[in-house]
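User: I'll paste a sequence; please echo it back and then give the predicted structure.

Assistant: Echoing your sequence first, then the prediction.
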Amino acid sequence: MARGQQKIQSQQKNAKKQSGQKKKQGHDQKAAAKAALIYTCTVCRTQMPDPKTFKQHFESKHPKTPLPPELADVQA
């Protein structure tokens, strides 16, 4: 019967360890994703990861608004 008790304790310890790692890992992913969004649309405040996506967004969502100077030389 001793092995049964050890097995239960080992499973509980492993489950606690795994849940701690998942919480830590999920938080890091959110922070990394947020840090990757460095370009912000001046009209609607939407964030984008790169200038190409930013220019495509600006041309499709805000066609009547003049293009910002930082997007003038970007090729979409």
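The chain has two domains: 1-36, 37-76. The CA atoms of residues 21 and 60 lie 41 Å apart.
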